[in-house]
Structure formats: C-alpha cells, structure tokens
Fold this sequence. Notes:
This protein has four helices and five strands, in the order H-H-E-H-E-E-E-E-H. It is of the alpha+beta class. It has a five-stranded mixed beta sheet. It is globular and about 50 Å long.
Amino acid sequence: MPAVSNESLLRRMYDEVFSKGKLGVVDEIMDRNFVEHEPPPPGFKSGVEGLKQLIGALRTGFPDLGLAVNDLVSQGDRVWARGTITGTHKGSYMSIPPTGKRISFEVMDIVRFSGGKAVEHWGVTDNLGLLTQLGAIPAPGQPKK
Length: 145
C-alpha cells in the first residue's frame, strides 16, 4: 500500500477515533493482531482492545479531546507522526476528579502498516506534562503540596 494511503489511515485514526470518539473505526484501521510497543497506563490492556479502552478513558476525562497532526512523515511501510492532544478536564481521568483545566501535551507515534491495516505501534506520550497540568504531580522544581 502506498505511503500516502498509510498517512491517510493514521490521519483518520487521529481525526475520527481520537478527536471524534468513533471507536468502531479502530477495527477498520487496525489489524486484529496489532502489536503495541508503548507500555499502556496501569490497569489498561495492550493491543486493539487496550487502545479502545484508553481512548474511551481519555474521551470520558476530556470530552472535547482533539489530536492535531504537527508533523507527518512516511517511508516504506511506516508512518512517523508528532501530534498535540488538547482538551478540557471535565470528567474523571485515571482517578483524577475533573479540574476544568485546559490541557495540551505532545505525542509521537511510529506506526507500521501491512495490507492496509496498522500492525505495530511505537510511541512516546508526555504523560508527565499531562499530569503536571492536571495538578496530579508538582511541576519540576516546584515544592510538593
């Protein structure tokens, strides 16, 4: 499958799944034997079901969640992306009660595609930045409350 199509699939994942909450699209884009190399948060599964679980939790905590593509590059069967997740903390997320705070944090993804489906993912998420913005942990250099 051409790289442009793989890029389109990843953009669709960001737009329809993360930003609009259409979890059914996950099954269209991802292979059922999808391998996740980024460790899931505590209590979350890995693979396709784990991704759905994580997106559901994110959209519960941040109902206006959005994932914007900042950079997108592809070569062969892989697509690299850097994105920004934004939202307003209106629901409980990871046992953190709603704060009403606006959040913005970065993600980086590498996705390998085969046969028109995402088959592997490696990623880095700025969870420290997210938890700091929510007040769950003090910002670096700040005293504990």
